[in-house]
Amino acid sequence: MDVSNLIESFAEFAKQKNIDRPTMIRILEDVFRNMIRKKYTTDDNFDIIINADKGDLEIYRIREIVDDESEDIWDHDKISLSEAQKIEPDFEVGEEVSEQVDIEHFGRRAVTTARQTLMQKVKDLEKDILYQKYKDIVGEIITGEVYQVLSKEVLLIDAEGNEISVPRGEQIPKDRYRKGENVRAIVHKVEMVNGNPKIILSRTSPVFLERLFEQEVPEVYDGLITIKKVVREPGERAKVAVESYDDRIDPVGACVGMKGSRIHAIVRELQNENIDVINYTENLELYIQRALSPAKITSIKIDKDNGRVSVYLKPDQVSLAIGKGGLNIKLASRLVGYEIDVFRELAEGQEEEDVDLDEFSDEIEAWVLDELKRIGLDTAKSVLNLNKEELVRRTDLEEETVESVLGVLKKEFE
Protein backbone atom coordinates (compact mmCIF):
# COMPACT_ATOMS: atom_id res chain seq x y z
CA MET A 1 0.00 0.00 0.00
CA ASP A 2 2.29 2.77 -1.26
CA VAL A 3 0.62 5.89 0.08
CA SER A 4 3.77 7.94 -0.52
CA ASN A 5 3.39 7.60 -4.30
CA LEU A 6 -0.20 8.74 -4.01
CA ILE A 7 0.76 11.85 -2.06
CA GLU A 8 3.71 12.65 -4.35
CA SER A 9 1.60 12.37 -7.52
CA PHE A 10 -1.02 14.66 -6.02
CA ALA A 11 1.65 17.17 -5.02
CA GLU A 12 3.02 17.14 -8.57
CA PHE A 13 -0.45 17.75 -9.98
CA ALA A 14 -0.97 20.62 -7.52
CA LYS A 15 2.24 22.30 -8.70
CA GLN A 16 1.23 21.99 -12.35
CA LYS A 17 -2.14 23.62 -11.61
CA ASN A 18 -0.61 26.34 -9.42
CA ILE A 19 -2.57 25.16 -6.38
CA ASP A 20 -1.22 26.84 -3.26
CA ARG A 21 0.38 24.64 -0.61
CA PRO A 22 -2.25 25.21 2.14
CA THR A 23 -5.02 24.09 -0.25
CA MET A 24 -3.03 21.04 -1.30
CA ILE A 25 -2.39 19.99 2.32
CA ARG A 26 -6.04 20.64 3.26
CA ILE A 27 -7.27 18.33 0.50
CA LEU A 28 -4.88 15.56 1.49
CA GLU A 29 -5.80 15.92 5.14
CA ASP A 30 -9.53 15.82 4.34
CA VAL A 31 -9.09 12.52 2.49
CA PHE A 32 -7.22 10.85 5.34
CA ARG A 33 -9.49 12.29 8.02
CA ASN A 34 -12.41 10.76 6.15
CA MET A 35 -10.60 7.42 6.33
CA ILE A 36 -10.14 7.87 10.10
CA ARG A 37 -13.81 8.74 10.65
CA LYS A 38 -14.91 5.56 8.88
CA LYS A 39 -12.89 3.45 11.33
CA TYR A 40 -13.14 5.47 14.55
CA THR A 41 -16.40 7.44 13.98
CA THR A 42 -14.64 10.70 14.89
CA ASP A 43 -11.31 12.30 14.02
CA ASP A 44 -11.23 15.08 16.59
CA ASN A 45 -8.46 13.43 18.65
CA PHE A 46 -6.22 12.63 15.67
CA ASP A 47 -3.31 14.68 14.34
CA ILE A 48 -2.16 14.27 10.75
CA ILE A 49 1.29 15.37 9.59
CA ILE A 50 1.92 15.42 5.83
CA ASN A 51 5.15 16.13 4.01
CA ALA A 52 3.83 16.32 0.44
CA ASP A 53 7.26 16.78 -1.15
CA LYS A 54 8.55 13.47 0.22
CA GLY A 55 5.19 11.69 0.26
CA ASP A 56 5.42 11.17 4.06
CA LEU A 57 2.24 10.64 6.12
CA GLU A 58 2.08 10.37 9.92
CA ILE A 59 -1.15 9.85 11.85
CA TYR A 60 -1.24 10.23 15.63
CA ARG A 61 -4.08 9.22 17.96
CA ILE A 62 -4.17 11.39 21.08
CA ARG A 63 -5.86 10.10 24.25
CA GLU A 64 -5.95 11.02 27.95
CA ILE A 65 -4.93 8.33 30.45
CA VAL A 66 -7.63 7.41 32.99
CA ASP A 67 -7.77 4.85 35.79
CA ASP A 68 -8.80 1.33 34.76
CA GLU A 69 -11.95 1.69 36.90
CA SER A 70 -12.93 5.11 35.55
CA GLU A 71 -16.41 5.60 34.03
CA ASP A 72 -14.80 7.54 31.15
CA ILE A 73 -12.70 4.63 30.00
CA TRP A 74 -14.92 3.99 26.94
CA ASP A 75 -14.74 7.60 25.64
CA HIS A 76 -13.02 7.89 22.26
CA ASP A 77 -10.34 10.20 23.64
CA LYS A 78 -9.54 8.15 26.76
CA ILE A 79 -7.23 5.19 27.35
CA SER A 80 -6.89 3.01 30.44
CA LEU A 81 -3.70 3.20 32.49
CA SER A 82 -2.92 -0.47 31.86
CA GLU A 83 -3.24 -0.03 28.06
CA ALA A 84 -1.11 3.12 28.15
CA GLN A 85 1.65 1.42 30.12
CA LYS A 86 1.91 -1.20 27.36
CA ILE A 87 3.01 1.66 25.12
CA GLU A 88 5.26 3.31 27.72
CA PRO A 89 5.67 1.82 31.24
CA ASP A 90 6.24 5.22 32.89
CA PHE A 91 2.81 6.67 31.94
CA GLU A 92 0.55 7.87 34.76
CA VAL A 93 -3.14 8.83 35.04
CA GLY A 94 -3.86 12.32 33.66
CA GLU A 95 -1.06 12.27 31.10
CA GLU A 96 -1.65 12.35 27.37
CA VAL A 97 -0.71 9.52 25.03
CA SER A 98 0.19 10.35 21.41
CA GLU A 99 0.20 7.01 19.60
CA GLN A 100 1.26 6.73 15.95
CA VAL A 101 -1.22 4.79 13.84
CA ASP A 102 0.29 2.94 10.92
CA ILE A 103 -1.53 3.28 7.59
CA GLU A 104 -1.75 -0.52 7.30
CA HIS A 105 -3.89 -0.44 10.43
CA PHE A 106 -6.81 0.86 8.32
CA GLY A 107 -6.75 -2.04 5.90
CA ARG A 108 -6.22 -2.34 2.17
CA ARG A 109 -9.81 -1.46 1.32
CA ALA A 110 -9.68 1.80 3.28
CA VAL A 111 -6.45 2.86 1.55
CA THR A 112 -7.92 1.96 -1.87
CA THR A 113 -10.98 4.07 -1.05
CA ALA A 114 -8.71 6.95 0.00
CA ARG A 115 -6.89 6.66 -3.33
CA GLN A 116 -10.19 6.81 -5.25
CA THR A 117 -11.40 9.74 -3.15
CA LEU A 118 -8.19 11.63 -3.81
CA MET A 119 -8.48 11.03 -7.57
CA GLN A 120 -12.05 12.34 -7.47
CA LYS A 121 -10.86 15.37 -5.52
CA VAL A 122 -8.27 15.95 -8.25
CA LYS A 123 -11.00 15.90 -10.93
CA ASP A 124 -13.25 18.20 -8.91
CA LEU A 125 -10.36 20.56 -8.31
CA GLU A 126 -9.53 20.66 -12.03
CA LYS A 127 -13.15 21.53 -12.80
CA ASP A 128 -13.22 24.21 -10.14
CA ILE A 129 -9.93 25.72 -11.35
CA LEU A 130 -11.24 25.82 -14.93
CA TYR A 131 -14.57 27.33 -13.83
CA GLN A 132 -12.91 30.05 -11.74
CA LYS A 133 -10.32 30.81 -14.44
CA TYR A 134 -12.98 31.59 -17.04
CA LYS A 135 -15.40 33.14 -14.57
CA ASP A 136 -12.75 35.79 -13.89
CA ILE A 137 -12.35 36.67 -17.60
CA VAL A 138 -15.99 36.85 -18.74
CA GLY A 139 -16.16 39.65 -21.31
CA GLU A 140 -12.52 39.28 -22.40
CA ILE A 141 -11.27 38.12 -25.81
CA ILE A 142 -9.54 34.74 -26.05
CA THR A 143 -8.27 32.67 -28.97
CA GLY A 144 -9.05 29.00 -29.44
CA GLU A 145 -8.23 26.38 -32.06
CA VAL A 146 -11.10 24.71 -33.91
CA TYR A 147 -11.12 20.96 -33.39
CA GLN A 148 -14.70 19.96 -34.13
CA VAL A 149 -17.48 21.62 -36.14
CA LEU A 150 -20.95 20.42 -35.11
CA SER A 151 -24.41 21.42 -36.31
CA LYS A 152 -25.29 23.33 -33.12
CA GLU A 153 -21.86 24.52 -32.00
CA VAL A 154 -18.19 24.76 -32.83
CA LEU A 155 -15.81 23.26 -30.28
CA LEU A 156 -12.45 24.91 -29.69
CA ILE A 157 -9.41 24.01 -27.62
CA ASP A 158 -7.70 26.70 -25.54
CA ALA A 159 -3.94 26.96 -24.91
CA GLU A 160 -4.17 24.47 -22.02
CA GLY A 161 -6.25 21.92 -23.95
CA ASN A 162 -9.59 22.77 -22.35
CA GLU A 163 -12.75 22.46 -24.44
CA ILE A 164 -14.69 25.67 -25.10
CA SER A 165 -17.79 26.20 -27.22
CA VAL A 166 -19.17 28.74 -29.70
CA PRO A 167 -22.90 27.90 -30.05
CA ARG A 168 -24.59 28.59 -33.39
CA GLY A 169 -26.49 31.54 -31.90
CA GLU A 170 -23.18 33.18 -30.90
CA GLN A 171 -21.60 32.77 -34.36
CA ILE A 172 -21.64 35.47 -37.04
CA PRO A 173 -23.85 34.06 -39.83
CA LYS A 174 -21.03 34.45 -42.39
CA ASP A 175 -18.49 32.60 -40.19
CA ARG A 176 -16.99 29.48 -41.73
CA TYR A 177 -14.86 27.26 -39.51
CA ARG A 178 -12.12 24.83 -40.47
CA LYS A 179 -10.39 22.39 -38.17
CA GLY A 180 -7.06 23.70 -36.92
CA GLU A 181 -7.70 27.40 -37.56
CA ASN A 182 -7.65 29.97 -34.75
CA VAL A 183 -10.83 31.79 -33.77
CA ARG A 184 -11.19 34.92 -31.61
CA ALA A 185 -14.24 35.50 -29.43
CA ILE A 186 -15.18 36.82 -26.01
CA VAL A 187 -15.93 34.66 -23.00
CA HIS A 188 -19.70 35.12 -22.91
CA LYS A 189 -20.68 33.04 -19.90
CA VAL A 190 -19.53 30.10 -17.78
CA GLU A 191 -22.00 27.53 -16.49
CA MET A 192 -21.86 24.29 -14.51
CA VAL A 193 -23.66 21.57 -16.48
CA ASN A 194 -23.99 18.23 -14.67
CA GLY A 195 -21.03 19.16 -12.49
CA ASN A 196 -18.82 20.10 -15.44
CA PRO A 197 -17.87 23.67 -16.41
CA LYS A 198 -19.26 24.77 -19.79
CA ILE A 199 -17.41 27.75 -21.29
CA ILE A 200 -19.47 29.58 -23.88
CA LEU A 201 -17.87 32.08 -26.26
CA SER A 202 -19.57 34.70 -28.42
CA ARG A 203 -18.70 36.52 -31.63
CA THR A 204 -22.10 38.24 -31.89
CA SER A 205 -22.08 40.08 -28.56
CA PRO A 206 -21.70 43.90 -28.66
CA VAL A 207 -18.97 43.41 -26.04
CA PHE A 208 -16.87 41.53 -28.62
CA LEU A 209 -16.93 44.57 -30.90
CA GLU A 210 -16.09 46.82 -27.95
CA ARG A 211 -13.06 44.68 -27.06
CA LEU A 212 -11.88 44.73 -30.68
CA PHE A 213 -11.91 48.53 -30.57
CA GLU A 214 -9.81 48.38 -27.39
CA GLN A 215 -7.27 46.18 -29.20
CA GLU A 216 -7.09 48.26 -32.38
CA VAL A 217 -7.48 51.81 -31.01
CA PRO A 218 -4.88 52.77 -28.37
CA GLU A 219 -6.94 55.80 -27.25
CA VAL A 220 -9.85 53.49 -26.36
CA TYR A 221 -7.55 51.08 -24.51
CA ASP A 222 -5.98 53.99 -22.58
CA GLY A 223 -9.38 55.43 -21.64
CA LEU A 224 -8.95 58.67 -23.62
CA ILE A 225 -11.95 57.63 -25.73
CA THR A 226 -14.98 55.99 -24.14
CA ILE A 227 -17.33 53.65 -25.97
CA LYS A 228 -20.76 54.74 -24.75
CA LYS A 229 -22.86 52.11 -26.51
CA VAL A 230 -22.62 49.39 -29.17
CA VAL A 231 -25.52 47.91 -31.15
CA ARG A 232 -25.12 45.20 -33.78
CA GLU A 233 -26.75 43.02 -36.34
CA PRO A 234 -23.82 40.56 -36.47
CA GLY A 235 -22.15 40.32 -39.85
CA GLU A 236 -24.38 43.04 -41.33
CA ARG A 237 -24.14 46.38 -39.59
CA ALA A 238 -23.19 47.99 -36.29
CA LYS A 239 -23.34 51.44 -34.72
CA VAL A 240 -20.82 52.51 -32.10
CA ALA A 241 -21.25 55.72 -30.07
CA VAL A 242 -17.93 57.12 -28.84
CA GLU A 243 -16.94 60.10 -26.72
CA SER A 244 -13.66 61.83 -25.89
CA TYR A 245 -13.03 63.80 -22.72
CA ASP A 246 -10.06 65.50 -24.38
CA ASP A 247 -11.10 68.24 -26.82
CA ARG A 248 -7.89 67.69 -28.77
CA ILE A 249 -8.94 64.15 -29.73
CA ASP A 250 -11.50 63.49 -32.46
CA PRO A 251 -13.06 60.22 -31.21
CA VAL A 252 -14.56 59.23 -34.56
CA GLY A 253 -11.35 59.96 -36.49
CA ALA A 254 -9.22 58.11 -33.94
CA CYS A 255 -11.45 55.02 -34.10
CA VAL A 256 -11.55 54.96 -37.91
CA GLY A 257 -7.84 55.66 -38.33
CA MET A 258 -5.90 57.07 -41.27
CA LYS A 259 -7.73 55.94 -44.43
CA GLY A 260 -9.76 53.57 -42.27
CA SER A 261 -6.67 51.58 -41.22
CA ARG A 262 -7.88 50.87 -37.69
CA ILE A 263 -11.49 50.03 -38.39
CA HIS A 264 -10.66 47.85 -41.42
CA ALA A 265 -9.02 45.27 -39.14
CA ILE A 266 -12.21 45.11 -37.06
CA VAL A 267 -14.43 44.91 -40.14
CA ARG A 268 -12.41 41.96 -41.48
CA GLU A 269 -12.65 40.14 -38.14
CA LEU A 270 -16.45 40.58 -38.20
CA GLN A 271 -16.90 39.24 -41.74
CA ASN A 272 -17.17 42.69 -43.37
CA GLU A 273 -19.72 44.02 -40.90
CA ASN A 274 -20.47 47.65 -41.81
CA ILE A 275 -19.55 49.77 -38.76
CA ASP A 276 -20.84 53.33 -38.22
CA VAL A 277 -18.83 55.24 -35.61
CA ILE A 278 -20.88 58.09 -34.14
CA ASN A 279 -19.86 60.97 -31.90
CA TYR A 280 -21.93 60.68 -28.72
CA THR A 281 -23.72 63.73 -27.34
CA GLU A 282 -26.16 64.47 -24.52
CA ASN A 283 -28.19 66.53 -27.01
CA LEU A 284 -30.86 63.96 -27.90
CA GLU A 285 -31.94 65.61 -31.17
CA LEU A 286 -28.38 65.81 -32.42
CA TYR A 287 -27.71 62.24 -31.23
CA ILE A 288 -30.70 60.97 -33.21
CA GLN A 289 -29.55 62.86 -36.32
CA ARG A 290 -26.11 61.27 -36.05
CA ALA A 291 -27.59 57.82 -35.38
CA LEU A 292 -29.68 57.99 -38.59
CA SER A 293 -26.71 59.01 -40.72
CA PRO A 294 -26.25 59.13 -43.70
CA ALA A 295 -29.85 60.41 -43.96
CA LYS A 296 -30.35 64.16 -43.48
CA ILE A 297 -33.26 64.98 -41.15
CA THR A 298 -35.53 68.00 -41.63
CA SER A 299 -37.19 68.03 -38.20
CA ILE A 300 -37.68 65.87 -35.10
CA LYS A 301 -40.49 65.50 -32.54
CA ILE A 302 -39.61 63.64 -29.33
CA ASP A 303 -42.26 62.02 -27.14
CA LYS A 304 -40.28 61.06 -24.03
CA ASP A 305 -43.34 59.80 -22.16
CA ASN A 306 -44.01 57.12 -24.77
CA GLY A 307 -40.38 56.61 -25.75
CA ARG A 308 -41.01 57.47 -29.42
CA VAL A 309 -39.43 59.86 -31.87
CA SER A 310 -41.04 61.16 -35.07
CA VAL A 311 -38.47 62.05 -37.71
CA TYR A 312 -39.40 64.04 -40.82
CA LEU A 313 -37.27 63.85 -43.96
CA LYS A 314 -37.38 64.84 -47.57
CA PRO A 315 -38.63 62.01 -49.82
CA ASP A 316 -35.18 61.23 -51.21
CA GLN A 317 -33.80 60.76 -47.67
CA VAL A 318 -36.37 58.25 -46.42
CA SER A 319 -34.77 55.13 -47.90
CA LEU A 320 -31.37 56.22 -46.52
CA ALA A 321 -32.83 56.59 -43.03
CA ILE A 322 -34.53 53.21 -43.17
CA GLY A 323 -31.62 51.38 -44.79
CA LYS A 324 -31.47 47.97 -46.39
CA GLY A 325 -34.03 45.71 -44.76
CA GLY A 326 -34.81 48.48 -42.26
CA LEU A 327 -31.44 47.89 -40.61
CA ASN A 328 -30.33 51.51 -40.27
CA ILE A 329 -33.44 52.69 -38.45
CA LYS A 330 -33.56 49.54 -36.33
CA LEU A 331 -30.00 50.02 -35.06
CA ALA A 332 -30.49 53.78 -34.63
CA SER A 333 -33.55 53.12 -32.43
CA ARG A 334 -31.58 50.72 -30.26
CA LEU A 335 -28.64 53.12 -30.03
CA VAL A 336 -30.66 56.12 -28.82
CA GLY A 337 -33.15 54.09 -26.77
CA TYR A 338 -36.24 55.43 -28.55
CA GLU A 339 -38.57 53.92 -31.14
CA ILE A 340 -38.04 56.00 -34.28
CA ASP A 341 -40.89 56.61 -36.76
CA VAL A 342 -39.95 58.03 -40.16
CA PHE A 343 -42.26 60.39 -42.07
CA ARG A 344 -41.91 61.89 -45.52
CA GLU A 345 -42.14 65.66 -45.29
CA LEU A 346 -44.19 67.39 -48.02
CA ALA A 347 -44.64 71.09 -48.68
CA GLU A 348 -48.06 72.53 -47.79
CA GLY A 349 -50.64 71.58 -50.43
CA GLN A 350 -48.10 69.37 -52.19
CA GLU A 351 -49.11 65.86 -53.17
CA GLU A 352 -46.93 63.00 -52.11
CA GLU A 353 -43.99 62.87 -54.45
CA ASP A 354 -43.13 59.88 -56.55
CA VAL A 355 -39.83 58.14 -55.79
CA ASP A 356 -37.29 57.06 -58.37
CA LEU A 357 -36.79 53.27 -58.46
CA ASP A 358 -33.05 53.71 -57.96
CA GLU A 359 -33.83 54.91 -54.42
CA PHE A 360 -34.74 51.29 -53.59
CA SER A 361 -31.42 49.78 -54.65
CA ASP A 362 -30.70 48.85 -51.01
CA GLU A 363 -33.83 46.70 -50.81
CA ILE A 364 -34.46 45.53 -54.38
CA GLU A 365 -31.79 43.76 -56.42
CA ALA A 366 -30.36 45.66 -59.40
CA TRP A 367 -31.43 43.10 -62.03
CA VAL A 368 -35.05 43.36 -60.80
CA LEU A 369 -34.95 47.16 -61.10
CA ASP A 370 -33.45 46.85 -64.58
CA GLU A 371 -36.29 44.53 -65.65
CA LEU A 372 -38.90 47.05 -64.47
CA LYS A 373 -37.11 49.88 -66.26
CA ARG A 374 -36.99 47.76 -69.44
CA ILE A 375 -40.79 48.02 -69.73
CA GLY A 376 -40.76 51.76 -69.00
CA LEU A 377 -41.32 51.75 -65.23
CA ASP A 378 -38.78 54.01 -63.54
CA THR A 379 -40.67 55.31 -60.47
CA ALA A 380 -42.38 53.65 -57.51
CA LYS A 381 -45.86 54.90 -58.40
CA SER A 382 -45.56 53.78 -62.00
CA VAL A 383 -45.02 50.23 -60.71
CA LEU A 384 -47.80 50.46 -58.12
CA ASN A 385 -50.25 51.66 -60.80
CA LEU A 386 -50.06 48.15 -62.33
CA ASN A 387 -51.44 45.08 -60.62
CA LYS A 388 -49.41 41.94 -59.88
CA GLU A 389 -50.77 39.96 -62.83
CA GLU A 390 -49.94 42.72 -65.30
CA LEU A 391 -46.38 43.00 -63.96
CA VAL A 392 -45.82 39.24 -64.18
CA ARG A 393 -47.17 39.22 -67.75
CA ARG A 394 -45.07 42.14 -68.98
CA THR A 395 -41.78 41.22 -67.27
CA ASP A 396 -39.65 38.10 -66.86
CA LEU A 397 -40.11 38.26 -63.08
CA GLU A 398 -41.54 35.44 -60.96
CA GLU A 399 -44.79 36.07 -59.07
CA GLU A 400 -43.00 35.88 -55.69
CA THR A 401 -40.47 38.50 -56.83
CA VAL A 402 -43.24 40.85 -57.98
CA GLU A 403 -45.05 40.44 -54.64
CA SER A 404 -41.85 41.29 -52.79
CA VAL A 405 -41.25 44.40 -54.94
CA LEU A 406 -44.83 45.63 -54.43
CA GLY A 407 -44.48 45.12 -50.69
CA VAL A 408 -41.34 47.26 -50.53
CA LEU A 409 -42.83 50.04 -52.67
CA LYS A 410 -46.09 50.14 -50.73
CA LYS A 411 -44.21 50.58 -47.43
CA GLU A 412 -42.60 53.69 -48.91
CA PHE A 413 -45.95 55.44 -49.07
CA GLU A 414 -47.46 54.13 -45.83
UniProtKB/TrEMBL annotation:
Superkingdom: Bacteria
Example GO molecular function: RNA binding
InterPro entries documented for this protein: KH_dom (IPR004087), KH_dom-like_a/b (IPR015946), KH_NusA_2nd (IPR058582), KH_sf_prok-type (IPR009019), NA-bd_OB-fold (IPR012340), NusA_N_sf (IPR036555), S1_domain (IPR003029), TF_NusA (IPR010213)
Coiled coil start-end: none
GO annotation terms (biological process): DNA-templated transcription termination; transcription antitermination
Record has Coiled coil as a keyword: no
SMART domains, alphabetized: KH
One Gene Ontology cellular component annotation held by this UniProt entry: cytosol
Broad class of the protein's primary localization: cytoplasm
CDD domains linked: KH-II_NusA_rpt1, KH-II_NusA_rpt2
Limits of the S1 motif domain: 139-204
Cellular localization per UniProt: Cytoplasm
Pfam family name, one: NusA_N
Keywords assigned by UniProt, alphabetized: Cytoplasm, RNA-binding, Transcription, Transcription antitermination, Transcription regulation, Transcription termination
HAMAP family the UniProt entry points to: NusA_B
Functional summary from the UniProt entry: Participates in both transcription termination and antitermination.
Protein family per UniProt: Belongs to the NusA family.
Subunit structure, interactors included: Monomer. Binds directly to the core enzyme of the DNA-dependent RNA polymerase and to nascent RNA.
Protein name as annotated: Transcription termination/antitermination protein NusA
Organism from which the protein derives: Chryseosolibacter histidini
Lineage: Bacteria, Pseudomonadati, Bacteroidota, Cytophagia, Cytophagales
